[in-house]
Amino acid sequence: MDIKTLIVQRLISLILVMVGASILIFIVIRVLPGDPIASILGMDASSETVTRMQVELGLDQPLPVQYWQWLTDALRGDFGNSFTFKLPVAQTLSDRFPRTVILSLASITVAFAIAVPAGIVAARFKGRAPDHLARLAALIGLSMPAFWLGLLLIFTFGVQLQLLPTSGFVWPSEDPLESLRHLILPAITLGTAYAGTIMRMLRASLIDILARDYILAGRAAGIPERRLLWHDALRNAMVPTLTVAGFAFGVMLSGTVLTEVIFNIPGIGRLLFEGILSRDYPLVQAIVLLNVLLFIGINFIVDILYIALDPRLRG
């Protein structure tokens, strides 16, 4: 498949998925228990005040009219004003999203730092003790709830040893060292959750490639094992591994609610949590649409990397 065809297909998919996601979240957020007017005014507000607020927010209109108005505004980049923060949603997102990006980059770095060496060792020593230990560690990482690991790290390194801060966020531009210290625990919490999946995919891909004829022929020709592993096998094994890594990074960018709430990081995930609790319709709808766009965008980039890394996929 050539790149032009891929781009056209992905753009069509993007439009269809975005429309479907917008309709779904518009309906779901409105059928959940709770009333945004009550969240704003309180339970003791008079009926006249409630009616006036409904008109002001456009909630007195039929649902199809509300959806169409919101969709047409969103296409112009206007996602409305947050019920909770009394600010444009776009401004609120622009304030929070960079923190999630920084956390995601740190977390995917941790995931690769764990997964790649473990996957290589496991594949190189298939069926032996290092392989068993690596797979056991991956299984533990996959089965361990992120919130539990986060609380364990907070208790150990924050409360008991008092080595690292347990909450908050510091911009790298303000204090690089302090920013790194604040990122260590949440990045380990989030990165560990995906390291096991990436490691297992890399191990399986490497085992498959190391058993192929051209690798066996290279061994017979006397090519060093290190060169076969690092130059030939690893590059090809990274192609399917990128799919898993792209999925993980897309989820991270979409906002990891539990991690950001536990470590008190004011990112997209925590913002979504706050928006759902307060029934902030414009805010929740915008965040979910942003998440869908990011997820599709990351997977589109992964598809392009597929073609770049594997010549067989080029048209």
Main pleated sheet: none
Q: Please give the CATH class of the largest domain.
A: Mainly Alpha
**What's the alpha carbon Rg, rounded to whole Å?**
24 Å
H-E string = HHHHHHHHHHHHH
Backbone shape: globular
Structural class: mainly alpha
E-strand count: 0
Which regions are unreliable across 5 or more consecutive residues at pLDDT < 50?
none
- By DSSP (H or I, 4+ residues per run), the number of helices equals 13
Helix content: over 70%
**Ends: how far apart?**
5 Å
Tell me the domain tally. 2
CATH topology of the largest domain: MetI-like fold
CATH architecture of the largest domain: Orthogonal Bundle
Account of the protein in words:
Residues 97-302 form the ABC transmembrane type-1 domain. This is ABC transmembrane type-1 domain-containing protein. Belongs to the binding-protein-dependent transport system permease family. It is a multi-pass membrane protein. Pfam families: BPD_transp_1, BPD_transp_1_N. With 315 residues, the chain is mostly helical. The chain has two domains: 38-78, no CATH class; 92-313, MetI-like fold (Orthogonal Bundle). Helix content is 77%, strand content 0%. The chain is built from 13 helices and no strands. It has helices at 3-31, 36-41, 47-57, 63-75, 89-124, 129-143, 146-160, 176-210, 213-220, 225-253, 257-262, 268-277, 281-309. The mean pLDDT is 84.
What's the arrangement of secondary structure elements?
Blueprint: H1 3-31, H2 36-41, H3 47-57, H4 63-75, H5 89-124, H6 129-143, H7 146-160, H8 176-210, H9 213-220, H10 225-253, H11 257-262, H12 268-277, H13 281-309
